[in-house]
Amino acid sequence: MKRGHGFYRYVAVRFLLSSLAFSFQDRPLTAPELLRQGRLDEALAIFRQDTEIAPRSVAPWNGVGVVLDLQGHYAEARQYFARAIKVAVTSQEKVAALRAMAVAWGFTGDCKNAEKYETNAFQAYLASGDYPNAGEVANEMGRLCIDAGDFDRSREWYSRGHDTGLDEPNITPARRDLWNFRWAHAQARLAVRRGRIQEAQKYVAAAKAILDKGTNPEQQEYFPYLAGYVAFYSGDYPEALRTLKEAAIADPFIQCLTAQVYEKMGDTANAQIYYRRAASTTNHSVPAAYARPFATKKLK
Q1: Where are the domains of the chain?
Q2: What pLDDT, in 10s, does the model give residues 80-95?
Q3: Is the pTM of this model over 0.85?
Q4: Checking phi first, is residue 277 left (phi over 0); if not, alpha (psi -120 to 50) or beta?
């Protein structure tokens, strides 16, 4: 049977697609891909090689630091983050490296040492007139400190973040609501950690009222976290569990907090499930800085 040109074009295209698929499947995974899969030793080996290949690049130095933090080698990790700060050329690279170092100190629960790096990042944003990002850094520092149990320092930074965020030129009403919501959120958590339950509930209500205005719908996901957090530290574990089930359960901090709730309720099996999830996070973030070390210790 005679075949037309269309058939041969089809065969050629199929062969090309098959070749591309085969090539893609055969491609070695990159260090970031291995990291996301939790293959830490393999990722570390590649990141280390990359520091030799591109010693003036921030990414591999940062990558080694991230993996070492996740493995619990905190002091060694900070040596690599320090190198990333040193080789950073652009202001964006420098600020990102400073914030990564601050998170690294967060993995050890040391917000005082983290403060030195967050302060530099905060001042860099202020110097460029970037008030929103300066406010974000200040809130980041507040979160590191509340998780470390340094409530006075935490409140100072959260307050600074709120005030700096509001300094944004020509700020819109929605942006103003955003910073007020974040401030109420922080004050509720700080109050309940100090044992001031009624005060905490007042700020929870204030945060809810701001959300109900509808100006920042993307912030809705952070309310169940707040309600669950306040309920947990108030000793109302059933309510904490109910609200945390509505929170971002992929967040390692939420996983860790959920595990703590189950533990308080005497449900060891479920506590272990959530501790394992938190301990397996490959994020190098403020939530992970608290959750991964805490959950790892619980599993030992």
Answers
A1: 31-87, 251-300
A2: 999 999 999 999 999 9
A3: yes
A4: alpha
